[in-house]
Amino acid sequence: MAFSWSKIDKPIIILAPMAGYTDSPFRQIVKKIEKNIICISELTSSTAIHHKNEKTIKMLNFSKTELPLIIQLFGNNPDYFVEAGKYLEQLGISGIDINMGCPARKVIKSEQGSSLIKDPNLAGEIIHKLVKAVKIPVSVKTRIGFTKYEEAPFINFVKILEEAGAKLLTIHARTKKQEFSGEVNYDPIYLAKKTLKIPVIGNGDISSVETAIERLKSQDKKITLDGLMIGRASVGNPWLLAEIYAKLHKQTYNPPKTLKSKIPLIKKHLLLNIKQKGEHFGLLEMRKHFGSYIKGFQNSSNFRKQLMQSETLEKTLKILSKIAEMK
To answer: Which among 86, 122, 183, 304 would be 20 to 30 A from 135, CA to CA?
Structure first.
């Protein structure tokens, strides 16, 4: 059965695309904890796919357990998006998300990511051409503005995205200028939900079940978003996505509270990384996750140092087993 954003039980809970983090092993871990989470890949260059860049093509490897899987593309050439979209459709990807929100300097310098907010016509053209070229749904992730939020240009922009054929819109509650700091403003997202017919997802500073409940509805409770996207708070705590999903869907879920109870999943994550990237690079990639997984627990600094210095899978597994034996 073909994937459709409109057929998913709401509220939809989505793992945000995060460069260097939401690779296939991490996505598999998230799906292992809660199969109903929708995962979006790391930022993927449509230009790199056009040039058949080996590293980029390798990044597109995925497991069937991740499905439905959405690949997020960035770029500014409509024809490259069409070419990349057709390639992804042949791979069996469930949907494509177009990045119009990345604030990274090198992306902005190339007039990609958040820069497309300043060029609504090009943004619309990219979506229109891609939607015509593929059968899988096309969605967009953007922000409330470039340098500042202004209601009229913002509403004009999101309407163009919808009219061009986007099937879902995720909005980060900050401007490009704010990047990932400063106060979030969800009011424009509620306004977009009120204005558009397509599903609207809120993103930004969702770090707990409580904040998820708060962000899902407008302050007057009159507007309810179609879902939430969680990013940085899931690193080191992928169980949070399952917690939020369970709470918002009136289900019961008890996440592991102790470091000992988290070790089996951490080991699973490690082994998935090794399987995909080999022992050397798999261990290097896991180091950033190890620090987040054990942060805040007793002796975490000591264990973190040991895990960061370990250069073999055997030694790393022994360290994790030692942590699991701690009382």
So the answer is: 122
